[in-house]
Design goal:
Elements: H1 9-17, E1 23-26, E2 46-49, H2 53-65, E3 69-73, E4 86-90, E5 97-100, E6 105-109, H3 114-121, H4 138-143, H5 151-154, E7 161-167, E8 173-176, H6 182-191, E9 197-204, E10 210-219, H7 223-234, E11 241-249, E12 264-272, H8 276-287, E13 294-295, E14 298-301, H9 306-309, E15 318-325, H10 330-339, E16 349-354, E17 376-383, H11 392-402, H12 421-431, H13 433-446
Parallel strand pairs: 2-4, 3-4
Antiparallel strand pairs: 1-2, 5-6, 6-9, 7-8, 7-9, 10-12, 10-13, 10-14, 11-12, 11-16, 15-17, 16-17
Helix pairs in contact: 7-10
Bound molecules: flavin-adenine dinucleotide.
Length: 468
Amino acid sequence: MTATRPPTPAALAAELAALVDGEVLPGDRPGAAAGFNVATVHSPDLVVHASSAADVAATVAVAGRAGRRVAVQATGHGAPAAGPGTVLVVTRALDGVTVDPAARTATVGAGATWQQVLDAAAPHGLAPLAGSAPGVGAVGYTLGGGLGPVARTFGFAADAVRSLTVVTADGELVVVDPAANPERFWALRGGGAAFGLVTSMTVDLFPVARLYAGGLWFTAEVARTVLHRWREWALTLPDTVSTSVARLDLPPLPSLPEPLRGRSVVHVRVACVTTAEEGAALVAPMRSAATPLLDTVGDLPYAALGAIHADPVDPMPVAERGELLRELPVEAVEAFLTATAPGRSPVMMAELRLMGGALARRPRVPSAVGGRTAAAHLHVVGVLAPPVAALVPGAVEDVLDRMRPWSTGASLVNFAGTPGPDADRRVGAGVGPDACARLAALQAVTDPSAVLTPAARWTAPAGGASCA
Ligand SMILES: Cc1cc2nc3c(=O)[nH]c(=O)nc-3n(C[C@H](O)[C@H](O)[C@H](O)COP(=O)(O)OP(=O)(O)OC[C@H]3O[C@@H](n4cnc5c(N)ncnc54)[C@H](O)[C@@H]3O)c2cc1C
């Protein structure tokens, strides 16, 4: 008896093209899966630009039968590279957003960005739990936890999910919610694509039309004063205030405000879910830390929340990684200052984000999101551009190493950095051994042939994410 050989990519492309409405492209077609992080270079057998949930379901079913694995990408802000033997589903065309103002929910397609959800919710005075960069995909962000600019007030985005429509590893389209499939509902929120390709999700919206929010930009010459003031101030804040502080070396781009162009700066990001008067009083101690180069903190429409962090929007090659900090003593701030001293490192940005508040509370419906008890989150980003590209990955690690004494050794899924055993170990540490074992056990049942493994962290070929 001869074993059936898997179809060639060309034969698989022909089979898929007959079944799906979206485009089926060769994996080596330049730009077939271009995304935000241009350092991610995919080399799948095929790229399928899905135009409907049915396209996603057909692709997973056919690819799985053909012995291929299936990866997914929306905006490419965080996708690991899809390699040979993989079919990459691009969901960007599934970008529908509908708002139910009475139920205070939005139903969001897998390809929609947060800005699309913000814009759809704003006319109703409602707010989704978007991330700092509104160009990030709402679904990918949410499945990875979702630590946003108002997170201390409302918690992780994953905890605001009501239901998900999902293509399972065998190509079935199912609704997953606390009643219909509680274990998969728990796992998808935090465990992500390992438990299905989401075609849409329904999330809670919050009655917030405006924030008192923005950024205080200081020259790095006053970094020590500002960082220590930020630490003292941040540790006193109520849950209505979320904040982070970043050391940035900005390029001399004309798109940046003139006072910031080409400068080494400290950027205090703040969002108060309060009246403008209350917000001004809360921010006053930070405002008086030193004379800012630029002060954009004020009354802000919620839909403009991207202005708080002012993250880059154009595609770029980045190396980045985050780790959770168990505490934030004075010594940690000193180490951060040393690690990010101007001229010392080619890292573009290092950020300390205050956690606590609603992030530390148990969600209404439990989820697999880890890291709830951390005091702060450290995020380091470098741009892999000449002449420093080769130095950047080591420089990112160097900042993390200097903060090691206060690190939990764990990472949130959305900030895990380059995929691999080290990222798996850190993500596993964040989720914790019990939840990690529960995820691995569920995945063994829901995806025994590891069709969805390229996007997963819970069942590596060697036998599992580091749950120990
Ligand atoms: C500039 C910038 C700012 C960021 N800010 C924040 C922030 O404030 N808070 C935060 O928590 N994170 C933040 N992130 C991280 C971001 O949330 C993750 O990279 C997230 O995975 C991006 O999702 P995406 O769909 O846009 O990206 P993609 O690269 O398209 O997808 C990333 C991953 O998401 C999963 N995924 C995407 N779509 C689906 C789907 N339909 N079904 C199942 N799984 C899917 C897959 O695992 C995929 O590999 C930021 C990233 C960048 C680059």
